Input
Amino acid sequence: MEIFAQLILSGIALGMIYGLIAFGYQLTFATSGTLNFGQGEALMLGAMVGLTLVGHMNYWLMIPLVLVFGALQGVLVERLGVLPALKTKSEFGWIMTTISLAIIFKNVAENVWGHDDVTFPSPLPTAPLQFFGLRVLPMEILVVAGALAVMLAVEIFNRKSIYGKAVVATSNDRDAAGLMGINTGMVITFSYALSSMTAAFAGVLVAPLTLTGATMGAVLGLKAFAVAIIGGLNSGMGVIVGGLILGIAETTTGYYISTGYKDVPGLLLLLLVLAIKPAGMFGKSVIKKV
Amino acid sequence: MNIKMKSIVTAVALAASFSAMAADPIRIGLSGPYTGGSSPMGVSMRDGVKLAASEINAKGGVLGRQIELVERDDESKNERGVQVAQELINKEKVVATLGYINTGVSLASQRFYQEAKIPVLNNVATGSIVTKQFLPPEFADNYVFRTSANDTIQSAMIVREAIDNRKFTKVAILADSTNYGQLGREDLEKALAAKNIKTVAVEKFNIKDTDMTAQLLKAKEAGTQAILTYAIGPELAQIANGMEKLGWKVPMMGSWTLSMANFIDNAGKNGEGARMPQTFIQEPNTPKRKAFIDAYLKAYNPPNGRIPSPVSAAQGYDSMYLLAAGIKQAGNTDGVKVREALENLKEKIDGVVTTYDHPYTHDNHEAITMEMVTMGEVKDGHVVRAK
Output
């Protein structure tokens, strides 16, 4: 029982990381129907910039700067990769452009910061805390709390502020929102900024737990994409639950079945969801009129 | 006028190329990963080879010709290694090639050398089958040589350390899912079976995995007394750090990659005490070794005065001297002649790892034997001789 609980705890920490990155996929999908396939690289850039800054300042002071950097990076991706595709009404152009930008970011990072994986100094003690015989790293608690806080903040912003209402309106019906005088182009740019910002934040949160390097984003970005599909691309609840399912499935399968098969149940679930409820477990299916 | 001009230019160019031919350099290929997770080994190996080549060139080269190294990055990727091999053989016309860090890349690439009858010296790759790909009767001659301690030697030493020296009876194997990890795991299992020991857990993980909780919990529940590893630096560090998280600490011992700087740095205090077989430790305990270490540090100035992978640097350095001796004895650069010379080297070569006395024969292409290998231990961020 104790082992099971320990596996669940590790799964939760892992799952919240996936969930937070998946949340970034959602933000841009809601407003523009496009995704940034470089979400993993946005996370990596956030972690790398954070690592550079942390040499000169305190971890907590570094976070706002990384957030600003993340937002700028998101705007860049939108302007270079997504806007041209949206303007020409290209259905799939943005897929290739965001992927190519991701590859460029990775190569730039390799040239700027080198090829080695390095440790990110932990802002919290690295000794695990004990609760009833279960062991948790302080950093893991921070990851879970930070992920929930960001999602909550975005949710409150969308519901309470006038700008948030513009985002929601654009998500519901871009054309109608445009006719109502909302600058939908601006809203889409903003959603990209927000999306890369959460990814960069996720980067500085997970970096002390994992190792930091130019290739750290690839696997995380891919798994988070699976989470976004499982949970549904338009459900905030979906990414949290989807993330937890995938994270816990990984750790428990690794222990109870075989570590060689630990990625299998999550991906089986992905196939199952796509077959039965393609909009995701919590997603609303949209009827596409042609 | 124009045609006249052209013919003059051609004549001059021809003359220039003929005169260059007289002291044409001996071109030697160098293939290894200088980027990515294996780069500490690749870069150290390359620098070791370059150091040896510049020493040889300073003394007048081989057969009166200078050595010219043609470096290519194989990025630890099998398909890239194959491209590099073809380029080096067909376009760069190398006489021989040194290198290969990754067993997988080596296995995929070296058949081109075998077909072209050009010797290839593996100076870091350790997979037991690396030198056994082209054996008689199918192949009359084998062009693959090695100057590193293969996995058969290493796994036997790891098992000897765990079972004979430290009297553990319950051991778990943690290996990554690459060719390197899984071939190493097989060798470890064989070596354990020879001592009638059955592992209590055998676990696997992927490159870039960051959470080792499941693997470690399984080993812990099985009552493991020591963890035997076959993986590379970053993931090995995650194992050491994962044990700290679970509040469970058992000795770690494994293949020589536990000496990689990216394990030592990323594991920090959690990696202290890890033990691994080493052909070379950065300790100036012989004049030859002192000279080598001093020359390396002076030429490349690595951070903290620590060679990123001392084993790779030393084996790379020695491989260059062995090849040079082979070419010298052959009297020319013909691949068949060089192979024959390497298989019967008359000159004793005073290397960094050991003194090579007839290191190869027609049927034995392994220069390193178990007696030349020692156990190293991570201590205060450095690898020292295990006591």
